[in-house]
Amino acid sequence: MPTAAIKENAFENIPSIKAKTLRINLNPNIYGTFAEIGAGQETARHFFRAGGASGTIAKAMSAYDKAFSDAIYGSEEDGRYVTQARLKRMLNHEMQLVEERISRDSNPDYLFFTYANTVATIDFSKRYKGHGWVGIRFQLDPQQKEYDEIVFHVRFKQNEARLQQETLGILGVNLIYGAYFKFHKPKKLLKYLYDHIDKDTLEIDMVNFTGPNFKDVDNRLMSLQLIKNDMTDAVMFGPDGNNLLPAAALYKKNILALRGSFRPVTKVNMDMFKKSYDIFIREQTVEYENTIVVFEITLSNLRASGEIDEQDFMDRAELLCSLGHTVLISKFQEYYKLVEYFNNYTKAKIGLTMGVNNLIDIFDEKYYRHLSGGILEAFGKLFFKDLKVYLYPMKDPNTGQIMTSNNLKVHPRMKELYKFFKYNGKVMDIIDYDPDVTHIFSRDVLKKIMNGEEGWEEELPEGIAEIIKNKKLFTRKEETVPKKEKERA
């Protein structure tokens, strides 16, 4: 059992920042360094002010000048300083110094840590709000050879650099405190990062836990916590299961997004993806090496059957990652909000792959009553600049007719608006679809899996049925299988 594990009964109510820093300072074993760049030495300041810091702080430094910083940590290939790579260099360098300079023979019980941040606060013109990387590398047992690590990315929302600095200082205290006293409850640790911080002032949009004490932590599940706890609007993870920073993954990229429940991912999902991608990649200005495909699941879809089922989420993520796809979990029920989000990071081409029902929903006015400009305001954001919808046909279950952009039915009041976007090339039919898979719906496949029926395997992409069977995914029966929820436009 790690020596930092202490009963928390007396501390379950939110302790003050001074109480947190004092508790760490008065622990004779917790010992390390602070390296803060870009927003003062706000975290170290709290520890100095609390008193008793001489037994905790080995060093506190801030290499503000770029040349001096490069001399200490080395230079980055891209020349940037507020990056995850820079933070990792800082953590590596500072921990190496602690190990070299502090004798284990003289201090056998020390639990080493190094806390670091590299940030850019709001600029003078107030055009860029600021962002940063924050992390801690630490031990929970003096015999621990491999360190534990928590790293995350923040976006500032306050309009003054001073306020952002103060927020960062509190955040740093919460992180160090959580690392030592809440490490065994990583979900709660994430929530406690906001102790004494208003969520309107700071966004955490990526986090990764690594190390021996976090070996059972799935970082995709930690991403989900960021969304559930209103820490951010969207999170991403790659095929390897590691969380991605959306800003880095989407920056200046052409984006093709496919929304769905993927419960489970089916042949029709993959046909939609492959056929729309073939069209998208041939569009003018779209280059293969500068294009990303995103499979998006909305939070409302995860909540379709009530509270979010984390195991169900992991089942979906497991399958999409096994197919080599990047996954986005978002709060954006309306498509125009998703497009707005993408436009924060790219001015390149955006494609949305969707079925007929989803496009019909986009032209339903009820989803835009909360906007002062109504549907026109939403469409101004949705069809902004270089966006195109790739429409997958649907077979009418009653008539057998194939529904496309040419014969779908929108509300009479919306007909002319629909024609405008249709004839201006904003909606393109996928014509080389596979007619043999149009009857497949995820909800029907899921029902068969849960009821132990046969034949569902043929409706899934190659290899997916084996994964579901081997890992027993989607096998928990529910009282009712939720009807397919319509995603808002």
UniProtKB/TrEMBL annotation:
This is TonB-dependent receptor. The lineage of its organism: Bacteria, Pseudomonadati, Bacteroidota, Flavobacteriia, Flavobacteriales. InterPro entries: Rossmann-like_a/b/a_fold. It comes from the Bacteria. Gene3D superfamilies: HUPs (3.40.50.620). Keywords: Receptor.
